Amino acid sequence: MKTNVAILASGSGSNAENIIHYFEKSNLVEISLVISNKENAYVLERARRFNIPSAVVPKSGWETGVAVMTLLQQHQTTIDFIVLAGFLLRVPDTLLRAYPNKIINIHPALLPKFGGKGMYGDNVHKAVVAAGEKESGITIHYVNEHYDEGQIIFQAKCEVSPEDSPEDVAKKVHALEYKHFPEIIEKTITKSCLNLMKQNPKDSDRYSKSNNL
Ligand code: GRF
User: Fold this and answer.
1) Which pLDDT band holds residue 198 (cuts at 50, 70, 90)?
2) Which residues form the domain of 117?
3) Is 147 a member of any domain?
4) String of DSSP letters for 69-137
5) Is 149 part of a structural domain of the chain?
6) Is 34's pLDDT higher than 70?
7) Is 141 a catalytic residue?
8) Any idea what the CATH number is for the domain that residue 126 is in?
9) Is residue 150 included in any domain, yes or no?
10) Is Transferase there in the keyword field (predicted)?
């Protein structure tokens, strides 16, 4: 039994595509669903190209979380783990409660710096350059009820030189995202499966066999 993952994304979805590609032949992870809050988000086209089911839940559906929970429950496969890859809305509390330590996000800077509401996409890289930072990078973290404040799982750095424009920084940060995000997802899911095995020894055989642990 593989771990079924849903990717949440609001925009282009280049990270989503990289993740989908990485896990195409995985025995551990199945990317089972892509959800966007925007019906014209390019990530939906990328999902179609890879034959991954996708859905749109408009902004109003994220406020109470009912619409997204219904979608996850009605989906043909139960979703076990959620990855935010450029998802711009707050994750509703119902979802956080249903997926404790099973929702992770990538932020394009070294948190706790340059995080919080409004700090997304190019805004982050512009702020990094304006502050004269000598380095930036990526932070992969668990999601909690506050923007960009969940426990940090992994960070990687890149240099920022005085000549760098926000676009230059974005390129360096994207390269780090593509390199590390899929691997960290894999490690985090493996850890989560191992914890589950400890908590439910009866299920351990099922998990270890199916996940090659
Ligand atoms: C990435 O930089 C990610 O860190 C941030 O949003 C951006 C999404 O880019 N959370 P893409 O849609 O994956 O190209």
Assistant:
1) confident
2) 107-139+156-208
3) no
4) HHHHHHSSS---EEEESS--SPPPHHHHHHSTT-EEEEESS-TTTT-STT--HHHHHHHHHHTT-SEEE
5) no
6) yes
7) no
8) 3.40.50.170
9) no
10) yes
Q: Is 42 helix (H, G, I), strand (E, B) or coil?
A: helix
User: Whose C-alpha lies nearest to ligand 1, atom 6?
Assistant: 86
Residue nearest atom 14 of ligand 1, based on CA coordinates: 14
Residue count (the chain): 213
Strands 29-36 and 54-56: parallel
Residue 192: what pLDDT? 83
177, 137 contact by CB (below 8 A)? no
**pLDDT per residue over 63-87, tens digit each?**
999 999 999 988 778 899 999 999 9
Do 61 and 120 fall into the same domain? Answer: no
Half-sphere exposure of 19 (CA within 13 A, CB side): 31
Out of 75, 107, 141, 174, pick the active-site residue. Answer: 107
pLDDT digits (tens, 9 = 90+) for 118-157: 899 899 999 999 999 999 999 999 999 888 899 999 999 9
